[in-house]
């Protein structure tokens, strides 16, 4: 089914003249691999400390087993924008994006009280909450130092926005809206701040290093924004459709945390009983199980998946404005991989 969907997308792009019919779009991860080979080793160098325990804490998630999804997008965007090879500053931004992302995961796990991440125990589960918070802070400080060394004040400003958005997004997640329309707007804005801002602003940052054209900066930003929101929408769907073994974390985790994501918000249109549960953050006995059943009986999963596809279509439209290249076409293919992933 995924092969059929991808072929449909490829033919759609050929029809509108965005790729040539004889071009086989390359695997994004394979295309970026050379530039990412020593990514985690370089991050560990940035995090070098003499204290053994702090080093163990900081290195814990930089074990090379992550997908490096964000650095891969940053590298491909850089090469799609560049006339020549990847610039050192652009590779630094790829590294910094992974450091900021990982620091946010460490802090999220403390806030959520999570005991599993990427199929293994979380830092807070192994070392405790206090040390986990300090480890996340230290990773962020190292990322800030690396960012300062790039020496471009506009890039520093753009990537500093990411950290502000992460904090604001976390506060937004702690609240909800009474009005149904406001609630969905709140959800999408929170999704941008917590997930998509990092991708969007990292893409914008690498564009700033090679172009002074605001239109190019906007293309890079909008591609990252739309792919990032789609990625999170799919993640929210997987919380209802994928088993815990696949995800590396318990399924229905969002409901248990009191969070109403896309599938629940869409289901609420068919089952108004969900409204009261959303407002009390699924805190009453049986709420999580009942909400789960309502989502399964509704078309909430399908509607959220459709919305993710719309965001991916917009990402394709944006990136197609750049000159043709293997990297640009790999970013197009990436949208389908985002939609078809199962973990």
Would you write up a description of this structure?
Its cofactor is Mg(2+). With 343 residues, the chain is an all-alpha fold. It has one domain (28-340): Farnesyl Diphosphate Synthase (Orthogonal Bundle), CATH 1.10.600.10. It is built from 18 helices and two strands. A two-stranded antiparallel ribbon has the order 1-2. Helix 2 (28-36) packs across helix 5 (69-81) and helix 17 runs antiparallel to helix 18 (326-340). Mean pLDDT is 89; it is low at 14-23.
What is the count of distinct domains? Answer: 1
Distance between the termini: 17 Å
The CATH first-level class comes to Mainly Alpha
Order of helices and strands: HHHHHHEEHHHHHHHHHHHH
- Approximate helicity band: over 70%
* CATH fold call: Farnesyl Diphosphate Synthase
Number of strands: 2
Binned strand content: under 5%
Radius of gyration: 20 Å
Shape: globular
| Unreliable sequence segments | 14-23
Total helical segments: 18
Mean pLDDT: 89
Largest sheet: 2 strands, antiparallel
CATH homologous superfamily - what is it? Farnesyl Diphosphate Synthase
Family: Belongs to the FPP/GGPP synthase family.
EC number: 2.5.1.91
Subcellular location: Mitochondrion
Cofactor: Mg(2+)
